[in-house]
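The following block was generated as part of the benchmark described in Methods. Ligand: flavin mononucleotide.
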Amino acid sequence: MSKLRFLTAGESHGPGLSIIVEGMPSGLELLEEDINHHLQRRQGGYGRGARMKIEKDRVSFTAGVRHGFTIGSPISLQIANKDYENWIVVMNPSPVNKQEEQVKEKLAQKYITKVRPGHADFAGAIKYRHEDVRNVLERSSARETTSRVAAGAVGHKLLDSFGVTVRSHVIQVGSTSLPQEYCGRLSEEEFKEVESSDMRCKSKLTTELMKQEIDNSRKQGESLGGIVELIVSGLPIGIGSHVHWDRRLDGILAQALMSIHTVKAVSFGIGFEAGILPGSQVHDEIQVKEENILEKSNYKHLTNRAGGIEGGMTNGEEIVCRIALKPIPTLARSEKDSLKSIDLYKKANDVAFYERSDVCVVPAGGVVCEAMAAFILADQLLQKFGGDSIDETLNNYKNYIEYCRGR
Ligand SMILES: Cc1cc2nc3c(=O)[nH]c(=O)nc-3n(C[C@H](O)[C@H](O)[C@H](O)COP(=O)(O)O)c2cc1C
């Protein structure tokens, strides 16, 4: 049913990442810089580790774009892993001479049989029958989120043509939260503040408090999770559908967001509170708008507790969605304080091994959430409005908006 889809390939320390985006209409302006902008946003944030200093992600198009415009064919994007030059022996796709002393030594250094709690290591090694756990962690690594951000940037570009924005801000890190009155909305001005904050948080004070909490965690060999709020503006009424379980927009968005590394919960609007409050405090009353006939609808909801989606469809209000990310599992601790784990080769108790790691990835996680949501919504717009060229898609969209104004 999807009109737009993407596939990714790439190991964390392999030669690079490959992304194919299929189904984009022709005629959409798309520059490598559009993608690089979002890749750079993912690399920021206070609490990141040394890897982000090595990688300066840049994309190259190898298909689907000509002279800065899509031509309707699959778009192929490549991102090189700079760190690969340090891993040429260990991660080489071609066979290496394992009899050579230097090669033997390098492979032994990076051979892993201990698994890290909280990662894919344990189940992945057993499921795929790997002796070297590296075969799991290289792909399960959140390096893969770089590819998602690249694909999402293509989605953002389509959404731009419809005047739709998908933006996030961090509302909680560990025990530090943005005051409730700042949540649930993100004006243009506030988003500028978010973009310039190390924590992607709109309040300078909360940003500082979050950073202090990260510093304390780093000293204690701890890691921190948090909550991101995602706000989508500009969508017309009726994106998604009530008619079948796999066409409901909240379900589709939740799946995409839940698939992101570290994401443990996704909620829309008042979320879990909807299970506690009585009906009159949960549902959003609807009224005729008194002004603004040039907008996309003549009606408005008096509140937005549903987070912009009712019956699996957009209702004309902003989509407001919260995403909880767990603390990253790799803890920078001495062996005696490391998390208890096992060695699959020795079949014995052991402790988690440490490989260079971040402390808090919540700000970067927000950029990944935006990317996944942008891609899903771009697909949803194409499903609703069709078209093989962007002009055709936009014409269909304009007709629909005219119709909505008449209802
Ligand atoms: C942007 C981003 C960066 C991450 N960096 C690290 C890291 O440096 N170290 C680590 O242990 N986990 C990191 N993670 C988290 C792991 O990838 C993730 O916890 C792990 O794959 C298992 O999570 P899951 O159970 O949600 O799949 C990162 C996650 C994201 C979203």
